[in-house]
Amino acid sequence: MGGKDNPHEGVRLLDHTADVGIEVTAPDLASLACRAALGMDWLLREAPAPIQIEERPFRVTGEDPAMLVRALLRELLHWHERDGFAPVWVRVEEASDAELRGTVPGGFPGGTPVREIKGVTLHGLRAECRGDGWWGRIIFDV
Predict the structure, then answer these.
(1) Which is nearest to 33 in space by CA: 2, 62, 1?
(2) What is 15-141's CATH topology?
(3) What whole-number distance in Å separates Cα of residue 90 and Cα of residue 105?
(4) Dihedral sign, Cα of residue 28, residue 31, residue 32, residue 33
(5) Less crowded by CB within 10 Å, the N or C end of the chain?
(6) Residues contacting residue 97 through CB under 8 Å, at least 6 positions apart
(7) CA distance 96 to 100
(8) Considering the entire predicted model, what is its pTM?
(9) pLDDT score recorded for residue 2
């Protein structure tokens, strides 16, 4: 995992054979999606968030909360690969069982990522309400 702990609240790195993953806790689904996005960005760059230069809107759909989080991460990964865009934060303005909509303030930190993430896998994918908060697990193909 590059030897560094993920500095984002509610995000814990997972040891996983041949891949890399995170576990995320949050008070609600919107916060879980945000923390997962920042956790993925840390896995890519192992660096603090860039300076905000622009905001990008997003709208993702999914059949359940786990697929919603995966859809958002896939969108952010696409922006990273295509443009070098990295999130400062994720603002979820609308959340339902089938859709997340909001904006991502971010920037272009440059440099070479410390690892390549090829995809957000379905293996072990979870996002569920547990007691008074949310818990998720995401495994990335590296």
Answers:
(1) 62
(2) Archease, Possible Chaperone; Chain: A; domain 1 (3.55.10)
(3) 7
(4) positive
(5) C
(6) 64, 65
(7) 7
(8) 0.89
(9) 40
Q: What would the pLDDT profile of 12-46 be if each residue is shown by its tens digit?
A: 887 666 789 999 999 999 999 999 999 999 999 99
What is the DSSP pairing of strand 99-107 with strand 86-87?
A: antiparallel
Phi, psi of 102 (to 5 degrees): 175, -155
pLDDT score at 63: 96
Other beta carbons within 10 Å of 15: 8
- One-letter amino acid of 61: T
CA distances from 105 to 5, 56, 69, 88, 117 (A): 23, 6, 17, 6, 21
Q: Locate 107 and state its tokens.
A: 């920037």
Q: Which DSSP symbol is given to 125? A: -
Question: How long, in residues, is the chain?
Answer: 142
- Distance separating alpha carbons of residues 80 and 106, to the nearest angstrom: 11
pLDDT score of 3: 41
Tokens of 73: 């991460």
Place of tokens 């990008």: 56
Residue spans per domain, the chain? 15-141
Q: How many CA atoms lie within 13 A of 62 on its CB side?
A: 23
One-letter identity of residue 33: A
